[in-house]
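Section 4.2 – Deliverable D4.2 (structural model, holo form)

The reporting period included a commitment to supply a predicted holo structure for the target in complex with protoporphyrin IX containing FE. Inputs used:
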Amino acid sequence: MRKICVMELLSAKNVRSFSSIRNEEAILLIDSIRSSSFSGEPVNFTESIIWFTSSMTCRSAFGQVLKEQDKFIKLIGEVIRLAGGFDVADIFPSYKFLHSLSKTKKKLLDVHHQVDSIVEDIINERKKNLATTHKGDHTVGDEDLIDVLLRVKKDRSLEFPITNNNIKAIIIDMFGAGTETSSTTTVWAMAEMMKTPSVFAKAQAEVREAFRDNVTFDVEELKYLKLVVKETLRLHPPVPLLTLRECMEETNLNDYTIPLKTKVMVNVWAIGRDPRYWDDAESFKPERFEQCSVDFNGNNFEYLPFGSGRRICPGISFGLANVYLPLAQLLYHFDWKLPTGMEPSDLDLTESAGVTSSLKNDLYLIATPYQP
Ligand code: HEM
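Output (structure tokens):
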């Protein structure tokens, strides 16, 4: 399954092929912020970004604006919220009975059921369309997630044939894994820039200079903005604890014996702030990456926002594209201020608890449209 996701869905080619959807969604984002900005009241930046990322993922998955898109996005958000908190029974597996007592689990099952039936309808509708219009032979790379999965499902040479249930699980997993991580990163980047106005000014100047004469955005040119995102991921990795690993052999570490099959959690949040590897570790300084080859490919163990090894995130390109573009567009099209009376030092950067670590309180900012 992982191979299918990496090769078929999240390849650089597919990520590029989603760029027109990304641009359309960015225009909708700007229009919506522009109309809210006329009142002069702060806009809910967090909500706008969550909407952008969810719509982007939704359209990449289903290739169209879903009839029930609003309902679907809300339900998926609910699944993530309900599944996101630490479950005592996950950490102490012998307390499995806690699961059955949990009201959250019942609610989760109910929401899951609703999501399931929406996705089931989409799959059936798509199958019907493919059968009647003979669109079965799409060009690879021009397909959305459902097309790809239905094509792969037909492949009889697969070691493990995929079922409709697998397709539904992949779609729901992709949403869970891809949506909140990207929106969380975008919101943290903006919050950190508002807290450090010199960084904000430098990033905005770069964007405005790069696109002075252009109508289209090529975010590849934005070297400083990329450093801002890199630094954001150091201080605020959206997945602070990597997927559980299991010890494949007994190991000795700092005089502790780690037995075979021990479950190990890697805390990338703590590693990213460890003063043994980072100077002035708690400060937001994108420049630290200027002359430094540390990257998110999973080989630099002091910096692992996308994990490492065989479970490394397969959505790095897709995720980063969904962070760079809205940030660049929003820095270009608006001037941003904190709500009246608030100083950068008043900005509360408390993190939420849960599987992903987002800014606890929604970020509210005043946007003023920019006239070049
Ligand atoms: C800024 C954005 C993102 C960040 C920071 C991020 C981070 C991560 C991390 C830390 C892991 C665990 C890796 C490990 O344990 O070694 C992970 C796994 C995963 N991510 Fe992402 N992710 C992002 C975006 C995305 C996107 C956009 C998608 C897909 C649309 C995605 C799909 C996945 C999947 C499917 C896994 C599970 C891989 C496996 O278990 O083999 N991610 N991600």
